[in-house]
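This section describes the prediction task in plain terms. A model, or a person checking by hand, is given the sequence of a single protein chain and must write out its three-dimensional structure as a string of tokens. No templates, partner chains or ligands are provided. The sample shown here is typical of the held-out split.
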Amino acid sequence: MRFIGSAEPVGNFEIAEEAEMKQKITVKDILFLQLVIIIYTCSSIAAKFAAAESLLSFRFCLFYGIEIMILGIYAVLWQQIIKRFELSVAYANRAMVLVWSMLWAVIIFHNEMTAQNLSGVALVIAGTVIVNLDTREEA
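The expected answer:
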């Protein structure tokens, strides 16, 4: 009999899951993770365009629909990410949303970048690299 919270594996499921988490994370995996994060930030772009339109106008509904579609795609892809990465590593990489969002703000919406923005982005990138390097060394 297995009690909730016990460390005893049930069948091969938990053993296979544990072995899968021990696989080495490759550069390809990290690039896929970043692609999924970029897709997620695209929902914010659609939301920004929707916000500029009159409520329930055709263009508002179009951009809102695009936002929902992007979030649906992201949800499916995120499930694939958490299969490949430890949850703590996957969420640490989500901090890169700030980097990609700031990039879109400058490129698409012509916002200005300040020294504080650049410093914050540098810290986020450094932290993400440290987490990813630590994970690659453990694998």
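For orientation: The chain has one domain: 25-138.
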